[in-house]
Amino acid sequence: MKLAMRPAGMLGILALSLQTGLIVAQNGEFDAASVRHSVPGETRSLKSDSSRLMYTNVSLRDYLIEAFGVRDFQVSGPDWLVLERYDITATLPASSSLEDRNTMLQKLLVSRFGISMHRENRDVLVYALTLARNGMGLHISGDQVKSNMQTTDGGFSFSHLTVRQIVSYLTSLRLVDRPVVDQTASNGAYDVVLQLYPTGQELIAAMNNGAVAMGGPVAAALKENGFQLELKKMPFEMLIIDRAQKVPVGN
Q1: At what angle do helices 98-113 and 60-68 cross, to 10 degrees?
Q2: Residue 163 CB: number of other CB atoms within 10 A?
Q3: What is the value of pTM for the model shown?
Q4: How many CB atoms neighbour CB 77 within 10 A?
Q5: Displacement of CA 250 from its chain's centroid (Å)
Q6: What are phi and psi of 33, to 5 degrees?
Q7: Structural domain boundaries of the chain?
Q8: Alpha-carbon span 125 to 185, nearest angstrom
Q9: Which helix (H) or strand (E) is 205 found in, with range?
């Protein structure tokens, strides 16, 4: 599978950063930025608009995911990348785009955390999502239905979503213990109801305890909707963190 990367502001002049081993854009920096350890017990929050970014109680791994446009399993490094939490407040120059913001965040993380990293391809064990051979359970959505995702008592209901969108939700909600890759070759929209647990409380408890393996309720619920999961090894481009410091420097 070819890695889908969000743009990272590459419209400016590019230079090879000797510190990171990555190509990093040089077309902008935050007007001002503060990076510090979070206060224990703070609520996780990610707020941003066209002029300001305010992130609270976020791991360095999640900052890297946001800045470089990768998924969580594509970041490899020490355990503390997930365990340590940081607050970042930054002011953006006028008329900054999302791509500009991500570029600025890349440069800020590299400089404040002294990050050295590189990219390499690795085989990753994933769940390949395919259509069931007999097509039983598939619900093709009507043309007039609006796209929607909502929780039910113990599960989720997807309306008029493509398979790619459903896969994105499965991954972002961390309902399974490995990345899910769309191999259906379908461009259609579907209505899917995933009844995972008898009650909403059990669903919340399961999600708090971490993603469940393929043999759990997600695979069974997908099967009822005409889909199936299969374990496969596939190549992905990984972001390898060779070195980083826990304490950010200079505000």
Answers
A1: 140
A2: 22
A3: 0.67
A4: 18
A5: 28
A6: -150, 140
A7: 14-121+237-243, 137-225
A8: 20
A9: helix 200-208
CA atoms within a 13 Å half-sphere pointing along the CA-CB vector of 196? 28
Pair of tokens at residue 104? 């600025």
> Which residue, 110, 17, 121, is CA-closest to 63?
110
**pLDDT by residue for the chain (251 residues), tens digit each?**
333 333 333 323 233 343 444 444 445 789 999 999 999 988 888 898 889 999 999 999 999 999 998 888 889 999 999 999 999 999 999 988 889 999 999 999 999 999 999 999 999 888 899 988 776 678 888 776 688 888 888 888 988 889 888 888 887 776 777 888 899 988 889 999 989 889 988 887 777 665 555 557 888 899 889 998 889 999 989 999 999 999 999 87
Q: Which amino acid is at 224?
A: E
CA pair distance 225, 219, nearest whole angstrom: 10
| Whether 35 contacts 248, CB under 8 Å | yes
> Which H or E element spans position 116?
strand 116-131
H-helix or E-strand spanning residue 118: strand 116-131
User: Which tokens in the block code for residue 212?
Assistant: 């469940």
Eight-state DSSP code of residue 176: B
